[in-house]
Amino acid sequence: MTTLTVARVLAILVAVVTTFGALLADFVIPATAAQHMRNDRWPPHAKFHDAQYIVMSILLGVLALALLTTSASNAQFAVVTACAMLATPWLGLLGALLFPRTAIHDPEFHNRPIVGLHPQVLLSAILLVVLLVAALLAARS
Predict the structure, then answer these.
(1) Which DSSP state fits 112?
(2) Of these four, 23, 24, 38, 41, which has the most CB atoms within 10 Å of its CB?
(3) Is-contact 57 19, C-beta < 8 A?
(4) What ranges in 1-141 are assigned the alpha helix state H?
(5) C-alpha–C-alpha distance, residues 127 and 137, integer Å
(6) pTM: predicted TM-score of the whole model, two decimal places
(7) What are 37-73's pLDDT values in tens digits?
(8) Cβ(64)–Cβ(15) below 8 Å
(9) Tens of pLDDT along 8-19?
């Protein structure tokens, strides 16, 4: 398996998570949707922005999958570009923590930390590392 193929496979895995992750976690899976779109305490405008994030993640994931699964004249560029696109919602999640009066979860919910991190922060960090590895492998090939 070539370095570029490994890079492409890693990016495709992140693209699938990005395409379906927010939709499943924030809207479909009952335990986590109750903390997001199905949270009766959330005002409609908060739900609007969560829905916006869900749709954005789906669009970025689908666009990246299109780049990663079609033959491009410059495959390296396609993989690196897809990685940059896929990093957007995950960097956005981490960047949102820098704004005043934001929190990774609402006070009525407590998500048990994993290795000291909120599960969403940990997932973001893992996926960003995978994307960095994929981009570096693609750039090297």
Answers:
(1) P
(2) 23
(3) yes
(4) 3-23, 30-33, 44-69, 75-96, 119-140
(5) 15
(6) 0.92
(7) 999 999 999 999 999 999 999 999 999 999 999 887 8
(8) yes
(9) 999 999 999 999
